[in-house]
TrEMBL record, chains A, B:
Record keyword Transcription regulation present: yes
Catalytic activity: biotin + L-lysyl-[protein] + ATP = N(6)-biotinyl-L-lysyl-[protein] + AMP + diphosphate + H(+)
InterPro entries: aa-tRNA-synth_II/BPL/LPL, ArsR-like_HTH, Bifunct_BirA, Biotin_CoA_COase_ligase, BPL_C, BPL_LPL_catalytic, HTH_11, Transcriptional_repressor_C
Protein name: Bifunctional ligase/repressor BirA
Record-level Gene Ontology MF annotations: biotin--[biotin carboxyl-carrier protein] ligase activity
One Pfam family linked to the record: BPL_LplA_LipB
Organism: Bacillus spongiae
Protein function: Acts both as a biotin--[acetyl-CoA-carboxylase] ligase and a repressor.
Gene from which this protein is expressed: birA
Source organism, top-level taxon: Bacteria
DNA-binding feature ranges: 23-42
Lineage: Bacteria, Bacillati, Bacillota, Bacilli, Bacillales
Length: 327, 327
């Protein structure tokens, strides 16, 4: 976690909007001595900030490091609730696991866990998720909606819409949603979403949304056995993406659609979701825990459940599955 | 946690079935010196064990302390899975919270968390559960059934049957089940069960069953505002109950019925449950999160959901509620 003083210094620069701030101004705003300010400025340089120092004018930030630490995320964050409490670490086993543990403490709704690297990142069905350092968004979000447990899977769809829109706006590349929890660019996976539920019989205690996004992975960062099915945003868009900006945009979108969902129900989200969905109307193979279902993907219900019409005309409700589009 | 050597000594006594064991025999079985054995015997005395020492014969245990520590629970435990991994502490905030955290680690199915005291024990809807020291069973059990999430509430009913039977056998007093999660003796509450779920969309990761039982609470241990609605097993049966034996019996019953449930489904459990149920056929008031429903409790479905017939004949399905029997 970043020191509170350095956080204050970065906030002061953020408020200054690119202007020079003198050592004395920074000392006033942080409540420490000018010598202490100078030491913290040196620490920020070590963390990857490029700071210009001009005599009689002071300091200004020229470039922030490509990190997703608390200070990078808080500067410019436009949400009121999501991401206002950030648990950032360089390296974790799994952000999802840490979020589950935090959910047992009294952390506020909207708390996020984010790391530069996961050593045991996990996806649906405890599958591994490859999460190399400084290249992706490896994040878990704690929500506490006052809803019954069967609503939880809808959060995968709400999150998918938020992430697809954020990718479109920040990277200017189209991401499509493959039900239930994958985002694709040009047919290859860039994002997985894992929604987990902690609940009593009739009441959600927490929904923990894990979001893994391949942002700036290079070809060599993608394991060989995945190279035909996985890609990264930068590989497809041809540019390096600011992960912090992407996270900020995702949080803003998710907060917005979470509010829409709570106020107006799932229907408006469903319409948005359908506009990004890739598998609807297609012949698919759906592999669930128990069976394999062949048929046409008709759409999703108001609960977010996939409807598949089998060859004999029977309509099946699918809660979660691996979907393969038949070509 | 008890020292591994003392655990071995207690296991040796358990195997010896009341016979004397010499210091040398204990040294052989534990792999330490006779001096070390002697020191551990003194420690056991401090923990409340009464040990008889007879020259040339050795030691034997006359009485074990009324604790629910690992060694007390393991000696005589007849289960193969439940309670084979025990996290015991003198005092915890909440066994349920610790179990949630352990569930995120790779602890084996059947792991239990048990404590002599909870400082922030909790029941359904984050209500407080009063859990004074050495007087009750404050325990959480981690199961990992391969089932869809909507099955989780059934574990409250399976557990209720196990606890009701165990109380009947150990304390020789009849406990009745009040749907969904309370056990009563003579109309007053002695047990609460809190089943919590950790899940993905279509798959349970863990079911965490919290069981709180007022075992040996005296009148003065029960808060004034609860004295008309709560009691303890010993207050109703007139005898002090071995908490360790009660826990062992609960674990044995629960393991048995869990297996029945997995092998044969909920129906046989439902029949058992109905034989202990107090509210069926009665006019009740059911207060759910959202509303208050008046009607006759008809029974439970094969999913464990309560069916209530309202005055206009409409039948309502209730997932969880506070039930009051109309008199």
């Amino acid at each position: 976690m970043q020191s509170p003083i350095r956080k204050k210094i970065l906030e002061a620069f953020a408020k200054g909007e690119g202007k020079f701030l003198s050592g004395q101004e920074l000392a006033n705003q942080t409540g420490c001595s000018r010598t202490a300010v100078w030491k913290h400025i040196e620490e920020l340089r070590k963390e990857g900030y490029q700071l210009e120092a001009v005599r009689k004018k002071g300091y200004r930030i020229i470039q922030t490091p490509d990190k997703v630490s608390e200070s990078e995320l808080l500067i410019g964050l436009e949400t009121s609730m999501l991401g206002r409490n950030i648990h950032y670490q360089q390296s974790v086993d799994s952000t999802q696991k840490i979020a589950h543990i935090l959910a047992q403490e009294a952390v506020p709704e909207g708390t996020i866990v984010i790391a530069e690297e996961q050593t045991s990142g996990r996806g649906r069905m405890t599958r591994k998720w490859h999460s190399p350092k400084y290249t992706g968004v490896w994040m878990s979000i704690i929500l506490r909606p006052d809803l019954p447990p069967h609503k939880a899977p809808q959060f995968t769809l709400i999150s998918a819409v938020a992430v697809a829109q954020a990718i479109g706006e920040i990277a200017e590349v189209d991401a499509e949603i493959k039900w239930p929890n994958d985002l694709l660019i040009k047919g290859k996976k860039v994002t997985g979403i894992l929604t987990e539920l902690v609940a009593e019989a009739d009441k959600i205690n927490s929904v923990i949304i894990g979001i893994g996004i391949n942002v700036n992975l290079k070809k060599e960062d993608i394991p060989n056995d995945l190279e035909n099915i996985a890609t990264s945003i930068s590989l497809e868009s041809g540019q390096t993406i600011s992960r912090a900006m992407l996270v900020q945009r995702i949080l803003l979108k998710l907060e917005k659609y979470y509010k829409v969902y709570i106020d107006e129900g799932f229907y408006p989200i469903k319409l948005l979701w359908e506009s990004y969905a890739v598998s609807l109307g297609q012949d698919i193979i759906a592999r669930t825990i128990n069976e394999t279902i062949y048929g046409k993907a008709l759409g999703i219900t108001d609960e977010g459940i996939l409807l598949v019409k089998e060859e004999d005309g029977k309509i099946r409700e699918i809660y979660s599955a691996d979907i393969q589009i038949q070509s």
